[in-house]
Amino acid sequence: DVKVTQSSRYLVKRTGEKVFLECVQDMDHENMFWYRQDPGLGLRLIYFSYDVKMKEKGDIPEGYSVSREKKERFSLILESASTNQTSMYLCASSLGGRGANVLTFGAGSRLTVL
Amino acid sequence: AQSVTQLDSQVPVFEEAPVELRCNYSSSVSVYLFWYVQYPNQGLQLLLKYLSGSTLVESINGFEAEFNKSQTSFHLRKPSVHISDTAEYFCAVSVGNFGNEKLTFGTGTRLTIIP
Questions:
Q1: Are A66 and A21 in contact (CB under 8 A)?
Q2: Cβ under 8 Å to A: B residues 67-96
Q3: HEC-encoded secondary structure of B13-53
Q4: Is pLDDT at B39 greater than 90 in this prediction?
Q5: Which phi-psi region, left, alpha or beta, contains residue B99 (left: φ > 0; alpha: ψ -120 to 50)?
Q6: Which residues from A are below 8 Å from B43, CB to CB?
Q7: At B83, is the secondary structure helix, strand, or coil?
């Protein structure tokens, strides 16, 4: 089974801190994604990546950046955390290429910004 | 751009009763449709998907969904629910020939089973 591992399940940070959320997948998937999940809003796409060193903005990229230096690792960066970035962050990966590919999700990282 | 509407944010159902979770989408091109489930304190996992072919798709735990192109719907149904079905259910859509690189999710429906 594909595993998507998010390094931190729970984080508490202060306003203005730089925050790194790490995600690693172990099945050589091409595509990786970061979503945030908020009650009543569902999942919203922040950034995604089709390949190493490639990234594309999703629907809500403001206040975030990403890094993909290696195929298996996709990092989400909050340069200066704010309270409105308190949320559940979900990383996912998919095989890539033509055809519909299923997303495999990590367990999530719940970030609280004080 | 595509969008997904899940009108019901919460659905309480008695155990062993039938349930339908509604999903409507909007897209001007052909789509792939998915239902994902999130059990308490877990990540999302795929429940079932429609890619092409038969419009009725089934999951291994008794759920089914029917793709209705004319009504742009992909409602999820189960004839008899169990306590273990308590979870949040997300409908999702992707477009184009390159797969689900950009899945758009609905806002979710929280299914609560009443013993």
A1: no
A2: 90, 94
A3: EECCCCEEECCEEECCCCEEEEEEEECCCCCEEEEEEECCC
A4: yes
A5: left
A6: 4, 90, 105-108
A7: helix
Question: What is the rounded CA–CA span in Å between residue A5 and residue A27?
Answer: 11
More confident residue, B99 or A70: A70
Task: Answer whether B102 sits within 8 Å of A100, measured CB to CB.
Answer: no
Task: Give the residue, B17 or B41, on which the prediction is more confident.
Answer: B17
Per residue in A40-97, pLDDT (tens digit) is 899 999 999 988 888 999 889 999 999 999 999 999 999 999 999 999 999 999 887 6
Beta carbons of B78 and B17 less than 8 angstroms apart? no
Contact A4, A24 (CB under 8 A): yes
Q: Do B98 and A102 touch (CB under 8 A)?
A: no
Residue B41 has a pLDDT of 83
Alpha carbon of residue B72 to chain centroid: 13
Cβ pair A45:B9 closer than 8 A: no
Neighbours of B114 (CB within 10 A): 11
CA proximity to B103, closest of A26, A109, A41, A33 = A33
Beta-bridge partners for A5: A24
| d(C-alpha B34, C-alpha B49), whole Å | 4
Query: How far apart (Å, rounded) are the C-alpha atoms in residues A111 and B15?
Result: 35
